[in-house]
Amino acid sequence: MKKILFLLTILVGALTAQATDYPYLTFETTDGAKASVIVENLTLTISGTTLTAGSQSFTLSNLLKMYFSTSDETSTGIDEITSASLDETTDIYDLKGHKVTKEQMNKGVYIVKTKSRTYKMVVR
């Protein structure tokens, strides 16, 4: 915990030096989602295992990396899934959390996990 606080203190110091060139601080989580917050007047706080940056909150164990960026890189959550990705599928779940097979997929929304990503998929 002390190491995290030390790193965040260094980050805040770097934040003021980089604010003009990089107006966003982007956080990437272990599931690949990204959220960006504006650096100007940014406050970082840690409460237990939660990091709060502006209006965004993150569980520290789920943070993969954070970096300064020139644009808002917040994930929209909408990506196209390819047939190649479906071939790499490791697990499929319905919205009730039940594991299903490709053959059991009827109309509805599913969570599809592959080796590299997790997708929400609508079957019509």
Secondary structure layout:
Layout (H helix, E strand, L loop, with lengths): L1 H17 L5 E6 L4 E5 L5 E4 L2 E4 L2 E4 L3 E7 L13 H5 L3 E4 L4 E2 L7 E6 L4 E6 L1
Antiparallel strand pairs: 1-2, 1-6, 3-4, 4-5, 7-8, 7-9, 9-10
Query: DSSP strand (E) fraction?
Result: 35-45%
Helical run tally: 2
- What is the terminal-to-terminal distance? 47 Å
Largest sheet: 4 strands, antiparallel
DSSP helix fraction: 10-25%
What pattern of helices and strands is seen along the backbone? Answer: HEEEEEEHEEEE
Strand order of the largest sheet: 8-7-9-10
**Which value, in Å, is the CA radius of gyration?**
18 Å
| Average pLDDT for all residues | 81
What gross morphology would you assign? elongated
The SS-based structural class is alpha+beta
Instruction: Give start-end ranges of low-pLDDT stretches.
Output: none
Counting DSSP E segments of at least 2 residues, the number of strands comes to 10
How would you describe this protein?
This protein is an alpha+beta fold. It has two helices and ten strands; from the N terminus they run αββββββαββββ. It has helices at about 1-20, 85; strands spanning about 25-30, 35-40, 45, 50-55, 55-60, 65-70, 90-95, 100, 110-115, 120-124.
